[in-house]
Amino acid sequence: MRMRTTTAIASVAALTLLTGCGAADMTKQASPYANAQGARTVTLSVQSWVGAQANVAVAQYLLEHELGYRVDTVQVDEVPAWDALSQGRVDAILEDWGHPEQEQRYVEDKKTIAPGGDLGVTGHIGWFVPTYFAKKHPDVTDWKNLDKYAELMRTAESGDKGQLMDGSPSYVTNDKALVNNLDLDYKVVFAGSEAAQITQITQFAKEKKPFLTYWYTPQWLFEKVPMTEVKLPPYKEGCDADPAKVDCAYPVTPLQKYLNAGFAEDGGQAAEFLRNFEWTTEDQNEVSLMIAEQKMRPEEAAKKWVDSHKSVWKKWLPSTTRR
After folding, report:
1. Residues 122, 281: contact at Cβ < 8 Å?
2. What mean pLDDT comes out for the span 58-75?
3. How many whole angstroms from its chain centre is CA 272?
4. How far is CA 161 from CA 127, 129, 182, in A?
5. Which of 44, 192, 208, 265 counts the most CB atoms within 10 A of its CB?
6. Residue burial 130-140, b: 16+ Cβ < 10 Å; e: rest
């Protein structure tokens, strides 16, 4: 589905605002104002990658400064976020990488969640190697040749197998099934979070070491550490239907927004604004870079982007408020 420093330390400092090792405790973090009738407050779910933080930062800034709302944010992992949204503990998820089971349960069956439209960003998960390694060993970009380089990819965590580095265990990943079903001499090792994964990738790159990693686009890190995708067996509709039998690449996913159904109906200008919120990969990466690399606070990055992109965000405002 899913998951943007000049140094590893900078990456961690910027991203620890959001990232964590475990699932959020919604009983402690849910806003008491979420889904409240007539409240001028909106509660947004923030997933633990910086692109999601960029979405929320800009939406929050505009909701507060243009529409006069108070905005609360709650950090919560991908699947629990759907539960929280259904229960009205949060009002909106601004970046979903595709959860068919949750969509069926909450959108189609229970009708407690309503689609909020396209985010405007297309996501893709894949396996990547550093471009400096792919240039020396171009055949590594075909999955059939990965075992040839497994020994070079070994780490203390992977033992006698090559390491396939994943991020947070909460992210959508088929990697363990892929390694098993493609009979690869690799072990999936979780870094724990996007921040930890970025730290490891930047350290490997600094030392020019080979690595194989689960990664995704859009993501600002490609500008600092160029990576080349490994071609997995092509994705075909339904090839990932059984999680235990997945043996194909990840799909290309137009990222979606979702609203609590009650909020979608009664959320007024805020709900209309969030449905209208749609920007590009370039827009998202611009804000993500400011947060992760330039170490700007999210609200500062949002303000800077808003100040220079008025023609973009004006279209998101409810028609009655445009001026």
Report:
1. yes
2. 97
3. 23
4. 17, 16, 14
5. 44
6. beebbeeeeeb
3-state secondary structure of 186: strand
pLDDT, residue 3, reads 40
Whether the pLDDT of residue 94 is over 90: the answer is yes
- CA separation for the pair 127, 99 (Å, rounded): 20
Span 13-20, mean pLDDT?
35
Cβ atoms < 10 Å from Cβ of 20? 15
More confident residue, 59 or 24: 59
User: Tokens 């004006």 — which residue?
Assistant: 314
pLDDT digit string, tens, across residues 101-120: 999 999 999 999 999 999 99
Q: Output the pLDDT for position 218.
A: 87
Looking at residue 107, what DSSP letter applies?
I
Question: Mutual orientation of helices 194-206 and 8-15 as an angle, nearest 10°?
Answer: 170
CA distances from 204 to 150, 155, 172, 296, 306 (A): 16, 11, 24, 25, 35
The conformational region for residue 125 under phi > 0 = left, psi -120 to 50 = alpha, else beta, is beta
Q: How confident is the model at residue 66 (pLDDT cuts 50, 70, 90)?
A: very high
Looking at the predicted structure, is the pLDDT value of residue 12 above 80?
no
DSSP state, residue 130? E
CB atoms inside a 10 Å sphere around CB 122: 14
Buried b (16+ CB within 10 A) or exposed e, 145-182: ebbebbeebbbeebeebbbbbbbbebbbbbbbbbbeeb
CA 265, CA 217: separation in Å to the nearest integer?
32
